[in-house]
Amino acid sequence: MKSTYLPLKYLLIFFLFFSCSDAEIPIAEEDNEEQSGDDPVNDDDSTDTAKILVFTKTSGFNHNTKEESAAMVNQIATDLSFDVEVSDNASIFDDQESVNNFDVIFFTNTSGNTLNNAQRNVVEAYAAQGGHFISNHAASDAYGHSTASTVNGGGKGEWDWYAEHVTGCSVRNGPNHTVNNFGATVTIENQNTDLTKMISFPWDDNEEWYYWEGGYLNSSFTELLHVSDTGDNSYDDARMTAHYWERPDGGISFYTSMGHSKNKYSDAEFVQLMKNAFEFILDR
């Protein structure tokens, strides 16, 4: 008769197997070292592309240069690699977060009273966090400064902050400019080569030159370009045609009175000036 007892060696194997069954078995884990630390995930999805708002709304005189302005900025955007959004609808200023996403707001030939109180507050808050402005020509015919003696209409006195911080000026009225395509000479008043590079000075140009006597000029702005005498009246004396302000809040405001006619926005010298302004701001 065979023994019913297991051989000793099998008992030992049985004992060893069950004594080890509760031990932790190492499990291979994915190497997550590349995802650790403060490095962002999906770097390829991030972008540093600047975004520009081209605002073209008018409630005063309409120069009908909206398409030409947009085409010029899109041309500059191709060279400087930024994105462009064009709008003539004031509702674009309804949302603070959306407005803050723009690196520059370009008020091009805007005129009159274009924004309500809430929208103006959004623009001021945008500036307070270092937002940048570029503006030209009729933009200085919006929200005339309350201290200007010859300025009327266009929301005069309703939003002095705009003339003080965006354009730095309010064009005078009666008269407010020379005839269109008046030949004059533009010279450099301030040696800011970032803003004047690749332009031949003296620059003989045809333009509807604005008058400032009796209007408003913010002395915080630095005069960049000067236009020569345009007539015999005191308001025809040599005067500012482009200026800028590196504001204490960290933003930059640039304005030029040039840009009356449609063909101006394809003029090589003017396009270069505007390109310089965008580059000067975006390089900050």
Can you describe what's shown?
The structure is a single chain. With 284 residues, the chain is α/β, with parallel strands linked by helices. Helices cover 25% and strands 19% of the residues. The protein has helices at residues 8-20, 66-80, 96-100, 117-128, 160-167, 193-196, 268-282; strands at residues 51-55, 83-87, 104-108, 132-136, 169-170, 182-188, 203-207, 216-217, 222-227, 239-246, 252-256. The chain has a nine-stranded mixed β-sheet, with helices on both faces. α2 (66-80) links the parallel β1 and β2. α2 (66-80) packs across α7. The longest helix is centred in the first third of the chain and has 15 residues, at 66-80. Mean pLDDT is 88; it is low at 1-46.
Question: Strands, helices and their partners?
Answer:
Elements: H1 8-20, E1 51-55, H2 66-80, E2 83-87, H3 96-100, E3 104-108, H4 117-128, E4 132-136, H5 160-167, E5 169-170, E6 182-188, H6 193-196, E7 203-207, E8 216-217, E9 222-227, E10 239-246, E11 252-256, H7 268-282
Helix pairs in contact: 2-7
What oligomeric assembly is this protein in? single chain
Summarize model confidence as the mean pLDDT: 88
Helix content: 25-40%
Radius of gyration: 32 Å
Q: Specify the structural class.
A: alpha/beta
List low-pLDDT spans. Answer: 1-46
Summarize the structure.
With about 280 residues, the protein is an alpha/beta fold. It has helices spanning about 10-20, 65-80, 95-100, 115-130, 160-165, 195, 270-280, and strands spanning about 50-55, 85, 105-110, 130-135, 170, 180-190, 205, 215, 220-225, 240-245, 250-255.
